[in-house]
Amino acid sequence: MRARVLGDLVWKETRQIGRNRMAMLTAAILPFFILVFLPVQLMASLALGGERGLEQLRGAPLPGLAVADPGELLVQLVFPLLLVLGGLLLPSLMTTYAVVAERERRSLELLVSLPVTVAEILAAKLLAVLAVTFLIGVPYVAIVLTLALVLGIAGPAAVPALVTVFLAAVACSTAISLLLTLLARDFRTANNLTGLFVVPALLLTVATLTAVSGPGRTYVLALVLLALAGLAVFVALRWISFERYLE
Amino acid sequence: MAERAMAFDGASKRYRNGTLALREVSWSIPVGARTCLLGPNGSGKTTSIRLLEGALAPTTGWVALLGREVNAAGYADARRRCGIVPQQAGMYADLTAWEYLELARRLYGRGDVRETLERFGLDEHRDKRLAQLSGGFQRRVLVAAALLSEPDVLLLDEPTVGLDPVAARDIHETLRAAMAGRTTLLCTHNLAEAEALCDDVIILRDGVVLLHEPLATLRERERPRTRLVARQDPAALAERVRAHGVAAAIEDGAVVAAVDARAQAPALLRALLADGVDVYECTPLAATLEELFLEAVRR
């Protein structure tokens, strides 16, 4: 794969994604609720003394929820879950617009006629999706983590763990997006497949967070998500050829 | 032997769904040739183009462009010397004509977008999104992108399909000028287009090469035919023609006799007139490429 060609294709992709207001709006609003609104609301509730809900949650019979401090409950369980959900959704929404739309409207022919390979086209699309994901997602995560630090809800050690989980979720979603690009021919199929892939990933997240105890659980969760990403890439490359993208 | 611009050697392509689109085809085009690739739907034309552009890999055999095996070392450089006009591509609603040509310039590594826009009369439309352009201008942008880098080889996949006659003629004129001195492979359903723009023909059917020869040779092989019209009805004329040992068929109120107009028709005419048949029209018939194509496909 040639770096210069990838750069040129990413230039084209980011221009197109940036111009698609509806795609940008959808990709920005839903993750905003998940990555900013919900955590801020929970932190505000905690800071203002509304701990009752969190206390109830702490009393639930699941082993992973046996956390003594409500603030710790947020940092160890709720934030990772929200970061994974946001990290999974952001690239998926972008990919649907960047990749599946191109396939659906047959503009892919325009790209294939230029001196590029299909692998370079796909890689550039995923890189552009990642770039926009970070452009939107990183400020959201930074706002929440800064607020958590300022309010004393999260300690300095929790920040790298939560950032790692978010990045792992983005990597997982991007890998899943690669599968999507090869499987989905239209928006409808893409949305169905997104649900099909995101829901098991979320269940796996909840299972990991509740099954693993201790402050290292977020790193374990990151490893699980990265393993899932590796599996998705392996399946995409091993069983589904890039030719499928052109069919 | 002339240097080969494109070559297929025992190349087959089987898709994942089991369809065998090409069956061990072998053909090559020398540098400078203008060849058309003809064939009915599903004959393997687009698969051939896709193999040459490196988007697909052959299942068996190999395919080469400008002496470089597709997707092997050196192919990327060969690919940058090749301009491609894709078949009925969808157009971007979020990329302008200038931006698409600029992308092509970057990827080919050479070319002048401003000069190309002027040359193809796209100056006024440079800032319009591709999807907003008319069909004719959209096709012009595609041809401009293919020619931007002054390539040595042109692959044209149905360049005028879906265009109105005026726009098609406009593209034909552009292509005729662009093809001068360039190796060209024109994939088309439009036989008149092929005849107007190409010198050689490759006919594919069911993934097999039925025929690959110069159009002139194909014409030499065509059976001589002469159209005869008489005052008598065509059935009577045909009967008299057959009586002189010449095959005859009635077509559109006239009789088509299997004789060479120059070498055999005078004697036949004398004999018919002596028989009292009032022949008043005698026209040598040249088969159209469509007829030659249909004959080859039926063979």
Write the SSE topology:
The complex is a heterodimer of chains A (247) and B (299).
Chain A: H1 3-19, H2 21-47, H3 52-58, H4 70-104, H5 108-112, H6 118-150, H7 158-183, H8 187-211, H9 217-238, H10 243-246
Helix pairs in contact in A: 1-6, 2-4, 2-6, 4-6, 4-7, 4-8, 6-7, 7-8, 7-9, 8-9
Chain B: E1 4-14, E2 20-30, E3 34-38, H1 45-52, E4 60-65, E5 68-69, H2 75-79, E6 82-85, H3 97-108, H4 113-119, H5 135-147, E7 153-157, H6 165-179, E8 183-187, H7 191-197, E9 200-205, E10 208-214, H8 215-221, E11 225-230, H9 234-243, E12 248-251, E13 254-257, H10 265-274, E14 279-285, H11 289-298
Parallel strand pairs in B: 3-8, 3-9, 6-7, 7-8
Antiparallel strand pairs in B: 1-2, 1-4, 4-5, 9-10, 11-13, 11-14, 12-13
Helix pairs in contact in B: 3-5, 5-6
Structural description of this entry:
The complex is a heterodimer of chains A (247) and B (299). With 247 residues, chain A is mainly alpha-helical. Chain A has one domain. Chain A has helices at residues 3-19, 21-47, 52-58, 70-104, 108-112, 118-150, 158-183, 187-211, 217-238, 243-246. In chain A, 45% of the residues are buried. With 299 residues, chain B is α/β, with parallel strands linked by helices. Chain B has two domains: 4-219, 3-Layer(aba) Sandwich (Rossmann fold); 223-298, Alpha-Beta Plaits (2-Layer Sandwich). Chain B has eleven helices and 14 strands. Chain B has helices at residues 45-52, 75-79, 97-108, 113-119, 135-147, 165-179, 191-197, 215-221, 234-243, 265-274, 289-298; strands at residues 4-14, 20-30, 34-38, 60-65, 68-69, 82-85, 153-157, 183-187, 200-205, 208-214, 225-230, 248-251, 254-257, 279-285. In chain B, the strands form three sheets. A six-stranded mixed β-sheet of chain B has the order 6-7-8-3-9-10, sandwiched between helices. In chain B, strands 2-1-4-5 form a four-stranded antiparallel β-sheet. In chain B, strands 12-13-11-14 form a four-stranded antiparallel β-sheet, with helices on one face. In chain B, helix 3 runs parallel beside helix 5 (135-147) and helix 5 runs parallel beside helix 6 (165-179). The two termini of chain B are 30 Å apart. The model of chain B has no long low-confidence stretch (mean pLDDT 88). Chain A binds chain B through residues 2, 5, 8-9, 11-12, 15-16, 19-20, 105-110, 112-118, 241, 243-244, 246-247, and chain B through 15-16, 50, 53-57, 71, 76, 79-80, 82, 84-95, 99-100, 103-104, 106-108, 142, 145-146.
